[in-house]
Amino acid sequence: MKKFKRYFFYLFLFLATALSCDVLPCLEYDGVQLNAGFYKIENEIVEDTLIDSLIIYPLNSEDAYYNGSTRKSKSISLPLGVNSDTTSYVLFLDSISYDTITFIYARQLQLISHECGFEHFFNLEEIRYTCNKIDSVWIRKDLVEYGEVENVKISF
After folding, report:
1. Residue 154 and residue 36 in contact, taking contact as beta carbons nearer than 8 Å
2. Positions of the chain with pLDDT lower than 70, given as ranges
3. Is residue 2 helix, strand or coil?
4. Which of 83, 111, 112, 88 lies closest to 101, judged by CA?
5. CA-to-CA distance for 42 and 79, rounded, in angstroms?
6. So what's the pLDDT on residue 129?
7. Which of 53, 75, 101, 154 is 20 to 30 Å from 138 by CA-CA measure?
8. What are the φ and ψ backbone dihedral angles of 116, each rounded to 5 degrees?
């Protein structure tokens, strides 16, 4: 019976310690990422759309950042580089067509908290893109920060 009480005490102590710890807010996020939504324009009407078979590569990389060849998506979150004021991606929409999109931005280093440290936020200034499948790209919200608010609209 003494062993049972001792094990129960240790179990209680372990659970009380584990449950009392808070998760830091910086551990709940994937970092600051640009959120882009996909749209189509028909008869001057803009509607969100699902894109299938989309594969996204960072420019000058052989490793795909996103491979949506088996699923459809209506948005994507893309990381922006912290060592440069531009980040470029290549979007493959089918096996023969691709577009390149370049985001030009200003970086802002901000202290999140003493526990989480610093994080880069971005102000979008300009977007350059090719027009093989992409019809237009425009900035909806220029401040790229935490959250799922759409920053860019990409129409096909």
Report:
1. yes
2. 1-29
3. helix
4. 88
5. 30
6. 98
7. 53
8. -95, -25
